[in-house]
Amino acid sequence: MTSAAATGGPSPARTLAFSTEGIPTANRVELWSIHNAKALIALDIRTMDDSPLAAAEINLHFPSIKLAQVRGSAQVIERNERFIRRHPMDVIGVFFALAGEAFFYYPGGFETLRPGQAVIYDADRPFMRGFHRGVEEMVLTIPREEYLALSGGRPLTKPVVVDFHDAGPSNRHMLALARLVREALATGTAGGAPAAAPLDARAVEASSLELLRLLVAGRGAGTPLGYLASARCFIEEHLADPDLCPARVADAVGISERHLTRVFAEEAEPPGAYILRRRLERARSLLADEGERTTPIAAVAARCGFSSQAYFARVFKARFGMTPLAARRGGADTLILPD
After folding, report:
1. Is 281 helix (H, G, I), strand (E, B) or coil?
2. Please, what is the end-to-end C-alpha distance for the chain in angstroms?
3. How buried is 315 (Cβ within 10 angstroms: 0-12 exposed, 13-18 middle, 19+ buried)?
4. What is the pLDDT of residue 201?
5. Gap between the Cα atoms of 211 and 139, Å rounded
6. What's phi and psi for 66, nearest 5 deg?
7. 3: helix, coil or strand?
8. What pTM was computed for the model?
9. How far is CA 113 from CA 74, 102, 129, 145, 232, in A?
């Protein structure tokens, strides 16, 4: 297991990493269990056959929450009543299934989880999870006390399954939380070491908590930060849609357009201006991409939600001080703006 600190402002996120690669076969399950007990959740882990366990995990530890990217071969994990008494965790877990199906048994029932579904559950209530084709998931844990503060004091007595599909019907807030966790893991770790780009740990944790509040406390209980994170996620998904507008964003996250405007006002950027900025930033990124060299500029504009190439060229130049063609050439004919 390796560890490091990914700093971003006053709240650092500690990173850890584990892999069974290079570990003798006979010791893998034991060391995998030890890592999870220290870095995430203590688990009784068993393989499903005689095949050697292959597993890897990257963890990010914040002051309150913990995040993890987990991959592994077929296995069963369990926390029964006896194990829980020996290893209490006092945390709520959110498990985001990324690949393969898994079963989730708990007192009184079971769930079959598919990729694009997340389950929220109290780790100190008995459960058994099985991954017959291997596991690939993200995990978020939060202390039970903090969860209760977010949920208005309502305990989690049974698993809650929520969709977060990238396409098709999904819970917008859970999709936003999944995207936030994915981006934090990608930004905050690079093979277990700090990434080149600093992680804004305080912002990640605060947004994660407020998105959880939206999920567990229900409509009308959200804060501006939670709605902002959810709105930004919806905007990123729909930048290519020329009909994307503040009214659609507001409807998607469950608030009025006026409320959405107030949410974005705290960031000193109206929602319409934010949409335009993100479209232009995506367009600039595509124009700088070597793999997009042969893509017509009109097609780049369309992929970023601009139905008029002339308008795209005008606002692009106003934003970046160069034409889209100049941006593709690396800024060779950049317009020098006065101070």
Report:
1. helix
2. 51
3. middle
4. 87
5. 15
6. -130, 140
7. strand
8. 0.82
9. 15, 5, 10, 27, 27
